[in-house]
Amino acid sequence: DIQMTQFPSTLSASVGDRVIISCRASQTISNWLAWYQQKPGKAPKLLIFQASSLEIGIPSRFSGSGSGTDFTLTISSLQPDDFATYFCQQYDTHSTFGQGTKVEIK
Amino acid sequence: QITLKESGPALVKPTQTLTLTCTFSGFSFRSRGVGVGWIRQAPGKALEWLALIYWDDDRRYNPSLESRLTITKDTFKNQVVLTMASLVPVDTGTYYCAHTHSNSWFFDYWGQGTLVTVSS
Q1: Distance CA A47, CA A35 (A)
Q2: Quick one: average pLDDT of A20-36?
Q3: Mutate which of A95, A96, A97, A99 to test chain B, going by most B C-beta atoms within 10 A?
Q4: Are strands B11-12 and B114-118 parallel, antiparallel or unpaired?
Q5: pLDDT tens-digit profile of B43-83?
Q6: Looking at residue A55, what is its pLDDT?
Q7: Under an 8 Å CB criterion, which residues of B touch A?
Q8: Which residue of A has its CA nearest to B93?
Q9: pLDDT, average across residues A21-25
Q10: Do residue A97 and residue B48 have CB atoms under 8 angstroms apart?
Q11: Which residues pair with B71 in a beta bridge?
């Protein structure tokens, strides 16, 4: 199984901050990685697929980068609607999700 | 507009088999590349991919759960059914179905989820 490790597990930030969330795969996954945003009691929402492709309708302040084993999700200027938990998902070999990064208000 | 909705029992006893149905609209298994997957989430925990079925009946399972899972589709009814056998309390959680396309594995549309509790 490919393990996905996200860090940090919790991140405290303010509106306007640049936020970077990391995700590391236990073996190379090329660019087969997606990022999701989840709010309490809601289903996840796709943000990024294939490591850096922005899903239709997602604001351009979200961006993804990386390949191989190391990936990042960047929010260029945090907005009030962005306080949520973020998950990465590898889909190189079957699929596994990271444990999540909660972005909370500082 | 693509929508998906999960249905099934809210409470299941240990050792029983769970049957969940995903009813969808806005797409069809007649379209090449379409897939529907199941993902679950224990309370306060991470997401866990369970199974995926494609337009051509290709089926994929989480290796750690494969012996307990069966996924099927009904193209005419626009439904996908997941069965999970031999339930234990750690199977408690919210179960989501979700859409994918282009024979991919990421999910662009999700149902609202259904909470399943395994308890005697």
Answers
A1: 6
A2: 98
A3: A95
A4: parallel
A5: 999 999 999 999 999 999 999 999 999 999 999 999 999 99
A6: 98
A7: 39, 45-49, 52, 60, 62-64, 96, 98, 104-108, 110-113
A8: A41
A9: 98
A10: yes
A11: B82
Nearest to B107 by CA among B63, B43, B41, B45: B41
B104 CB neighbours in chain A (<8 A) are: 49, 91
Which band of pLDDT confidence, cut at 50, 70 and 90, is reported for residue A45? very high
CA of B5, closest CA in chain A: separation in Å? 11
Residue B106 is classified by DSSP as S
Token pair of A21 as six digits: 């969330």
Question: Minimal Cα–Cα distance from A98 to chain B, Å?
Answer: 7
Integer-rounded Cα radius of gyration of chain A: 13
Predicted confidence at residue A76, as pLDDT, reads 98
Contacting residues of B for A87, CB less than 8 Å apart? 46-47
For B7-24, the pLDDT digits (tens) are 999 999 999 999 999 999
Q: Which residue's entry shows tokens 């337009």? A: B55
Phi (first) and psi of residue A105, to 5 degrees: -75, 130
Residue of higher predicted confidence among A106 and A54: A54
